[in-house]
Write a structure and sequence with these properties.
single chain, 2 domains, globular, eleven-stranded mixed β-sheet, 15% strand, 15 helices, 15 strands, Alkaline Phosphatase, subunit A, alpha/beta, 604 residues
Length: 604
């Protein structure tokens, strides 16, 4: 029978069974491949947008009626608005370290015990330690493509000008286009300066003291009262003169040395040009999404605006009601609109979580040399950048994920920018680190309405490395208590900022200590106007006792770490200087093209 079947050309039962097995294996393989592809395609992508020094009151969705921010406001309309979103620090460098690591920046050494609380020279040696785990690195290990466009400000080199030990690549980013340092007034010709003026005044004072000392020595030697060792004095004078020459050369080249634009590891514009810079950054962000539209990605759009020096492209100059500051905000809003439109065009919106925030509150002390206000508005909140009044640390928090997060919803519970870390790690099925304390909490239960209570019971507020305030939101209570142990002394009296020092300081004669601490109930007094007393709050002593206990427990789990913002790590070191030209003393190039970018859509 088998032979007859063979001769007739019909398959035998064995052949049919074999073919069925092959067909079944093929179907299973096809299904497995399909499931793998489906799994990869359903992994969410992320677009994180961080403004620099933007006030919470600058956006229409937080109450502004004179600045036009329709695209940022659309995130609130189509997503969730966080009304008590708190930055872990009120300065750029520590705040950004906290976002990436999910930890108080003091745990990573990214806070300062000195006057300077951020990196101000591109050739400093401090930075975010490589033993810190960022959520970007964890996403990279999950197969994500990761890109940073804009400001980094978390260090660059350690021992040589090309070791890039603190570069974004060392912390999980595949692509970088932006500033390794930050934008300063000094980076825009004609915008004034912050660093050089202060340094020049100190040099002038030092020279005056040296001249006075030399004259005194001559007089005492002439009168025979003191025998002056002229050879030693001459050597000291020579060394001092050489140091003075080096300082003068450095300050004359400050813009070239510190205002740098990089693509990946290469310096492409030194000094960078503000011309169409936001448009160039926008073009880079869109190109990154287009290159990675077929795979999960993380885009961190870290805006240069609205940190001074302010700038705007010709399409936006003079278009707002708030001078150059308003022009810059409205161009940033346009950029957000271009990014959102590109997500729609690439059919990525439904699988992309978009998050918008600012690194801290508005820099209220920013007044241009011509007297124009270059700082933003913090709404009803007191203080601003570099302070732990609400105006310095309460920041926008907008999240949009169509089909996942409810549209037009507000969450009034306490949240932190440190919450980004655990939220993203869990969403992406990465493994949470178990060898360190993570201070943030997963936001998704709050955002999805699965819980009504924030996981944050206490938040600790640092001014540089000094704990200045603590916030307590008791479980199942509507109150949010906040105690200030010290506060900055505003100048002039009655102002909202420290105008004599440009930013508020955290020690010495710049602050006022409070014993007992200033206590507020932010649920009733968000403007921090009326400190509570035992007469006005029956639980006054019990509240302060609970908060002091929380502070002691918090201090008990802080481990000593190297100080990344010490004088030795912040100071300029010539051998670490990034330079794009072969002639070191020039450090000048422009290979970015500085081209005007025409993007889809029109300016609003």
């Amino acid at each position: 029978m088998r032979e007859a079947a063979y001769r007739s050309g019909l398959p035998s039962g064995i052949d049919i069974l074999r073919n069925m097995k092959i067909l079944l294996a093929f179907l299973l393989l096809h299904l497995a491949i399909g499931n793998l592809g489906q799994s990869a395609n359903t992994q969410p992508s992320y677009v994180f947008i961080m403004a620099d020094d933007l006030g919470i009151g600058d956006l229409g969705c937080y109450g502004n009626t004179t600045l036009r921010t329709p695209h940022i406001d659309s995130l609130a309309k189509d997503g969730i608005t966080l009304t008590q979103h708190i930055a872990a620090a009120a300065l750029c460098t520590p705040s950004r370290a906290a976002v990436l690591t999910g930890r108080y920046p003091i745990r990573s050494g990214m806070t300062s015990f000195q006057k300077i609380g951020v990196y101000i020279f591109a050739a400093g040696s401090g930075g975010l330690p490589t033993n810190e785990t960022t959520f970007v690195k964890l996403l990279q290990e999950q197969g994500y493509s990761t890109g940073l466009i804009g400001k980094w400000h978390l260090g660059l080199n350690c021992e040589s000008s090309e070791d890039h030990c603190h570069h974004p690549f060392r912390h999980g980013f595949d692509y970088f286009y932006g500033l390794p340092l930050t934008n300063l007034r000094n980076c825009k010709p004609g915008a004034g300066d912050v660093i050089v003026v202060g340094a020049r005044s100190r040099v002038r004072i030092t020279v005056q003291i040296a001249i006075l000392a030399l004259f005194t020595a001559l007089l005492l030697d002439f009168l025979g009262l003191v025998r002056v060792p002229w050879r030693a004095l001459g050597f000291i004078f020579l060394v001092g003169t050489l140091l003075l020459i080096v300082l003068l050369l450095f300050f004359s080249q400050f813009r070239n040395l510190n205002c740098i634009l990089m693509r990946n590891r290469r310096v492409i514009q030194q000094p960078f040009s503000c011309e169409n810079l936001t448009q160039r950054m926008t073009s880079e962000a869109i190109a990154f999404m287009e290159r990675n539209s077929d795979r999960p990605f993380l885009l961190f759009m870290s805006f240069i605006p609205v940190h001074t020096a302010l700038y705007a492209s010709p399409d936006f100059i003079g278009k707002s009601k708030h001078g150059l500051y308003g022009d810059s905000v409205e161009e940033m809003d346009w950029s957000v609109g271009q990014i959102l439109a590109s997500l729609d065009r690439l059919n990525l919106s439904s699988r992309t979580l978009v998050y918008f925030t600012s690194d801290q509150g508005a820099h209220v002390e920013e007044i241009s040399d011509s007297g124009e206000v270059h700082g933003g508005w913090n709404g009803i909140y007191k203080g601003g950048k570099s302070t732990n009044w609400e105006g310095g640390i309460r920041v926008p928090g907008l999240l949009r994920w169509p089909g996942v997060l409810a549209a037009g919803k507000s969450v009034d519970e306490l949240t932190s920018n440190m919450d980004l870390f655990p939220t993203i790690v869990k969403l992406s099925n990465a493994t949470m680190p178990t060898d360190r304390i993570i201070d943030g909490h997963d936001l998704m239960p709050l955002l999805l309405g699965e819980t009504q209570q924030s996981e944050h019971e206490f938040l600790f507020h640092y001014c540089n490395s000094y704990l200045s305030a603590v916030r307590w939101h008791p479980r199942h209570s509507s109150s949010t208590w906040k105690a200030h142990f010290f506060t900055p002394i505003f100048n002039p009296e009655g102002a909202q900022g420290c105008f004599d020092t440009h930013v508020c300081m955290c020690y010495g004669n710049f602050i006022s200590w409070h014993d007992p601490p200033l206590l507020y109930d932010l649920s009733r007094d968000p403007t921090e106007s009326l400190p509570l007393t035992p007469a006005s709050e029956p639980q006054y002593h019990q509240i302060l006792q609970a908060m002091r206990g929380a502070v002691e427990r918090h201090r008990g789990n802080l481990a000593p770490v190297p100080d990344q913002l010490s004088v030795g790590n912040v100071i300029w070191k010539p051998w670490l200087q990034p330079c794009c030209s072969t002639a070191w003393e020039q450090c000048h190039c422009d290979s970015d093209g500085n081209r005007s970018t025409e993007l889809n859509g029109t300016t609003d």
